[in-house]
Design goal:
CATH superfamily: 2,3-Dihydroxybiphenyl 1,2-Dioxygenase, domain 1
Number of domains: 1
Number of helices: 3
Distance between the termini: 36 Å
CATH class: Alpha Beta
Low-confidence stretches: none
CATH architecture: Roll
Mean pLDDT: 89
Order of helices and strands: EEEHEEHEEEHEEE
Number of strands: 11
Structural class: alpha+beta
């Protein structure tokens, strides 16, 4: 089977999803996280869904709707966007229960990968913004190991994993691939 040029649009249930709209990140301080994401990754502000002037979202209904523990409250909420990719919805939540940032070994979403055309600049930008690189830039894994590729993981100041990745010569695909991996196009002024 070879990659299909056009994805299916419907199945037995009806129309299929278009793709990822946004990813949610809980951060300890919304403004500090925004400053870091702006400086490190060029994030841009879309809107604030819940400001410091708004009353927190809290109570049984909010806990049930969002899967929050009893007593948790959403204090602030902001939508950002990095380049030509999906949104990043940041939450600042006051909660009696909290775990540290997920590691790669933890279940569920565990890192944010950002495609970089200029890896050296991206590395320096992360460092200058207060991020910590876990290693030197290294080669990617199979299917991403074409000439000029590189990858490195970093930690944001609050511990979240961020992967910087470049694959300028593209991916390699086996004969059984159903579709090509998505790569963001260069950002425009949108």
């Amino acid at each position: 089977m070879h990659p299909s040029p056009t994805p299916p649009r419907h199945d037995a249930f009806g129309e299929l999803p278009r793709g990822i709209h946004h990813l949610g990140l809980t951060v300890p301080d919304l403004d500090q996280a925004t400053d870091f994401l702006r400086a490190a990754l060029g994030a841009r502000w879309c809107y604030d869904g819940l400001t410091a002037d708004d009353p927190p979202r809290q109570g049984h209904q909010v806990e049930r709707q969002l899967g929050l523990p009893a007593g948790a409250q959403v204090c602030r909420q902001r939508m950002l966007r990095i380049g030509n990719g999906p949104g990043l919805e940041l939450f600042e939540i006051d909660s009696p229960q909290r775990q540290g940032a997920a590691g790669l070994q933890d279940l569920g979403l565990n890192h944010l990968a950002v495609y970089c055309d200029a890896m050296e600049a991206a590395v320096e930008r992360i460092r200058a913004a207060g991020g910590e690189l876990l290693s030197e830039v290294h080669g990617n894994s199979r299917h991403e190991d074409t000439p000029g590729n590189g990858s490195v993981y970093a930690r944001a100041p609050w511990g979240m994993l961020i992967e910087l990745q470049t694959i300028p010569a593209g991916y390699t695909y086996g004969p059984d691939s159903e579709v090509q991996a998505w790569l963001p196009t260069r950002a425009t002024g949108d």
